[in-house]
Amino acid sequence: MSRADPQARSLTPSQQAALRHVRAQAILDGPNALAALRERVGKTGAGQAALDEALLSLRDHARVVVQFHPDRLTRAGESVADNLLRDGRYRNQFETGISNGGLSAFEGGERDLWEAGLFGGAYQARRVTAAERPKYGALDFLRYGDGPAPRFGSCYLILRPAIADRCSLTVGDSHRPIAHVGVRDAMEGILLGLVDAVGSGEWDLGRQDLAMPGLAVPSLLDRLSRTLGSILPDPARRPPGRLLDHYIEAQIHGPIDLRTDVDLLVADPCFQGTPTGERLRAACSSYGVAVSGHCGFVLAADSVDGEFRGPAMPALARRIAKDGFIDAAVIGAAAASLNRHPELWRDRGTYEETLQHLKQLWHVLVHKGHPAMAAET
User: Fold this and answer.
1) Phi, psi of 360, rounded to the nearest 5 degrees
2) Domain map of the chain by residue range?
3) Which stretches in the chain have pLDDT values below 50?
């Protein structure tokens, strides 16, 4: 039995309304989604018991994870690690001005409009503050070492199980058209979206660092049942999944506080012995959070080509490389330089273009990088 969520009773009216809106839609769609699931799964040869066990395991055991780059700078000039050390709070895009997706977290921006549609206008009500907006994470249903959504950060927080009670869910990124939504007690649509994506071949959830075929639907259901119900594994001993585009997005409503809401911080090994790494460890020590790592990624700059994420990648990799290599810390240092000294980067284009290229170079590193530390296979 998981510990109760101490923040659940302190949700603001806008946060409660957002959750109610998604829950109502998930419950309304649940019977049709379950019927479709039974039909799809039946055609694969998997039994109905396998479906029921997977759905129960996904509901009861899947953890929500928040991925982030600890060295990115907020609009106030502080890093994410600085903020975590200062007060133990993880902040949303509207507060920090940081995004590992699009830079549209402002009133009237695209993120604001997406949230209005997804949450029924709950966060567009009068006197709603930036701090009330949701934080974004992903449901960790495969437990790869680099997290369920490495696209959004080299480090991640594994939230306590009870936090899932105040999360809404979508299959894939919520800025795209959404076919299915879910909450913890109404997950049928989420599993249907996952089964459809895997069954159609649209999502390949196999290990991307090995010549391993993607999971078929029966294997996926079996893995959900067996893996999620087991003891939370040490990410340092887990292989990477490199899943840049395929994830179940979680929108976390209410605070994320290291003191009450986080079980584990998982850091890229490139931050060991750096000021950023020391701040992360100090924050975890101050607020009672355990620390682990994952295998990390490192890549020779000369091996970066323009086939993945475009022709701007090779020159950028060579420009920022340290001793001929790039890793998360090297890309973070370049992002900090761009933030503090944009004039040094004008030869590459606008600030927004270069920021986008740095994000894309991180994707290249996740996609092609070699593990910096050994992990189990």
Assistant:
1) -70, -35
2) 12-293, 297-371
3) 1, 207-213, 377
